[in-house]
Amino acid sequence: MAEFRSVEIDFDVHKFIELARESFAETPNTVLRRLLGIDAARPVQSVTGGGVMRAWSGKGVLLPHGTRVRMDYNGRTHEGEIIDGSWLVEGERYSSPSAAAGGTARTKSGKRTNLDGWTYWWALMPDEATWVRLSEMRCDEPNPSEPKVTDEEREIEVKHSHISVADLPPEGEVMAALEALLERKKRAVTPSEAYRNLADEFKLSTEQRSRLMDNGNVCHWENRVQWARNSLVKDGIMARGPRGHWGLAKL
């Protein structure tokens, strides 16, 4: 399995790499491997002498062996991979995203710094095409500070709320749309992927997608989708976990 190293490049090389990107999801390392003709699909070998490679898990998030990770800090991109239950970043092993961020990132003066790795790291799981921010993988449970209410109760609540939610699709429709989305995808999706796809399906405006609840911390639309997912889990239609993976129970 490849190990990653940080290298210094001048502006012209950086510009060339950026222009050669085929998509935002393609990292500078991937661009160079493609341009240099390096076969990125080398067989994975066990670093422990054989057997099944372990996934990394923390705070309800599961990253399979082979998951690629990256973060940007202070103008530099740092890349690594989940190898047998550990974060292997630029040749060093870490046990958590924050440890990997703090051990890798440097300030402008070259000093180490303490960072919340959940905020900085992005992950690309094996056989997936979309990078997901690590913190978003934890946002799959309804906010416990917001009580569960029916659509009728929600309309009553609107009368006493400074922010209206009456123009959002009712939970029943969101449940049906979420189940249909998973049927079409034939795979699990991330919470952010569900929010975006369903918002597109219901043709929600930017304001509807980003509107916050009265507490100013929770997005109304995401909270509506989370409750729909929670109801589907209780009905046995969707699987309960792992966090960051929303899939049908029968898959």
Principal-axis shape equals globular
Mean pLDDT, to the nearest integer, reads 77
The secondary-structure class comes to alpha+beta
Strand proportion: 5-15%
Most strands sheet: 6 strands, antiparallel
Total of DSSP H or I helical runs spanning 4+ residues? 9
Number of E-state strands: 8
Distance between the termini: 30 Å
- Largest sheet: spatial strand order: 6-5-4-3-7-8
Q: What is the radius of gyration?
A: 21 Å
- Quaternary class: single chain
Domain module count? 2
The arrangement of helices and strands along the chain is HHEEEEEEHHEEHHHHH
Binned, the helix content reads: 25-40%
Residue windows where pLDDT falls under 50 for at least 5 positions: 39-49, 139-164
In short:
The chain is an alpha+beta fold and 251 residues long.
